[in-house]
Amino acid sequence: MPSDAPLPALLVKLPFPTRAEFLRLHGANLTAGGLFVRTPHVKAPGTEAVVEVRLQGGDRLLYAQVRVEFVSGQGGKGIPGMGLRFTHVDAPTQRFLDKVAASYLHARKPLPPTPPHVGPVIWAVPLPVPPPPEPPPAPAQARPSQAEPVTLPVAADLPAEIPGETATETPSVPQPGAAASSLEQAPSAPPESAGVKGFFKKLFGG
């Protein structure tokens, strides 16, 4: 459809004499973002149009540019109708919607409502599925060391002595009180023979 082509006009006549009567009986079909219209003559999802809603006496209730956000009751299941999303509204309509949103909690939604028992709906664009919540980060764990293992030699791997050097014994240090015992246990000198004594007497005249 060319961009300058006029949008199709939809006229909805309500069997209610006043706005209060409409809100009392069918307020669940209206939000700040759109309107659900029960009708067997639906437009394809995504269709843009201009909708005018009038009360029983001819007074205008809503006037807005809309987009068919979803359809219901297709295939013989549920209540047939359309969810019309407001894309632009005139000033009187905006004031009316602000009052409705201030009085009804459900009317603050930015999308047209899906009343109970309308059956399965077909959206123009499927609603995005929120991603699942991310799990909390796992606590940090100590990382294993990447260094190469070092093997220490055992006693059997060590050499018995250093080549080129002579092993020396460490002199023992006598302990206190051990000197007398050592002297007593020392062997006595062998007795001199008689021949040796006579030799020294002749030599020195003794």
Model description:
The chain is built from 4 helices and 6 strands, in the order βαββββαβαα. A hairpin with a 5-residue loop joins β3 (48-54) and β4 (60-72). Strands 1, 2, 3, 4, 5 and 6 form a 6-stranded mixed β-sheet that branches. It has 206 residues and is α+β, with helices and mostly antiparallel strands. The protein is 19% helix and 20% strand. The protein has a domain at 9-123: Thrombin, subunit H (Beta Barrel).
Regarding quaternary structure, how should these chains be classified?
A: single chain
Helix count?
4
List the helices and strands in order.
EHEEEEHEHH
Look up the CATH topology of the domain at 9-123: Thrombin, subunit H
Q: For the record, what CATH class of the domain at 9-123 applies?
A: Mainly Beta
CATH architecture of the domain at 9-123: Beta Barrel
Q: Overall pLDDT, averaged?
A: 74
Q: Radius of gyration, rounded?
A: 57 Å
Question: Which strand-content bin applies to the residues?
Answer: 15-25%
Query: How far apart are the termini?
Result: 161 Å
Give the % helix: 10-25%
List the helices and strands and how they pair.
Blueprint: E1 9-13, H1 19-26, E2 34-38, E3 48-54, E4 60-72, E5 81-89, H2 91-103, E6 121-123, H3 179-185, H4 194-204
Parallel strand pairs: 1-3
Antiparallel strand pairs: 2-5, 3-4, 4-5, 4-6
Task: Please supply descriptive tags for the structure shown above.
206 residues, alpha+beta, Thrombin, subunit H, globular
Short description:
The protein is an alpha+beta fold and 206 residues long. Helices cover 19% and strands 20% of the residues.
